[in-house]
Design brief:
84 residues, mainly alpha
Length: 84
């Protein structure tokens, strides 16, 4: 499901919008990636970072996940809504 479609479907309900991943780069052309700023703009309130499938299939390390967390906390949804 596209995130803008999910946002429209959730409007007027108690459903909160979130994402399962975020790019570590705050801006720039990174095809296929979604920045924290983009997620904030669309209204995402949560980001899951460090999901076991990302660790397994994309070989995301603790170091990379820490960078994603720092970037998401700076540019994305309110602090405290970044889930590890």
């Amino acid at each position: 499901m596209y995130i803008d479609m999910a946002k429209r479907e959730a409007e007027g309900s108690h459903i909160m919008l979130g994402a399962q991943n975020v790019d570590l780069n705050l801006s720039g052309a990174f095809t296929g990636e979604t920045s924290a700023a983009m997620l904030k703009d669309i209204g995402a309130q949560y980001i899951i970072i460090g999901h076991s499938e990302r660790r397994t299939y994309h070989k995301e390390s603790d170091e990379l996940i820490a960078k994603k967390i720092r970037g998401a906390e700076r540019a994305g949804p309110d602090s405290g809504s970044v889930h590890r």
